[in-house]
Amino acid sequence: MAWFKRQEKGIITPTEQKKETPDGLWYKCPECGTVADMGEHRRLLYTCGKCNYHDRIDSAEYFEVLFDDNRFTELDTNLSSADPLHFVDTKAYPQRIAATQRQTGLKDAVRTAHGLMNGQDLVVACMDFRFIGGSMGSVVGEKIARAIDYARQHRIPFLMISKSGGARMMEAGYSLMQMAKTSAKLALLSEAGVPYISLLTDPTTGGVTASYAMLGDFNISEPGALIGFAGPRVIKETIGKDLPKGFQSAEFVLEHGFLDFIVDRKQLKQQLTDLLHMLRPAVVEAPAVPR
Ligand SMILES: [Zn+2]
Question: What is the pTM (predicted TM-score) of this model?
Fold first, then answer.
């Protein structure tokens, strides 16, 4: 029976004739393996319908999640990195920047914007992990600092969405200075009585955790996010002890008092709206800020 036995040998289907599912139609959850179509995945705001795994998303998606009708004004769109140290690793730094900009369509690892969230003004700074691991260099620091100033001058609550491997090594000391700069700007925002909410998403590590990400009036996180300063291997080797289970997960960090609450992305917009409503009297009653 020819149906069951291949009689001719050497039949090969060329790759271009193989019928494969086109990319981008299906999403497979890396946690539980459930397959969902992309439309459904998008409708669930890029979380898994079965195990609630929160997929990593970029600033474009967060802006869409938060801003009414996806309408917002982006701030400081044209800042781009210089090469103060003439840094070269496998590539010269300016080339790496140019290549990443082409690949991602982004200028650097953070975008800042002003828009309405359920009718309330909000300034958001959101990091993009795709841009050199969401690393914090002088452009990231400067854009965040300017967004904080903007929020303070207009008395609009500020939301920072962090997603970063930490400081950008190609700018070394200049990157580290961004920690002090953003922290100082946040202190001014706090003095002015304008609320600051910090949302930590997967992953938030290094100099970002050690500065603005942990300085919110509320520090909140998405479920399952990795939050830490140094990586687990470095810590294990330093203290010479095994680390507890779930170490550096958002849930562990919450239990140890470093987070105020964990929020499901599907409830993020509403919960932020409610939180800012509660904080509103503080914004209205605080004294005017000298410009
Ligand atoms: Zn899943």
Answer: 0.88
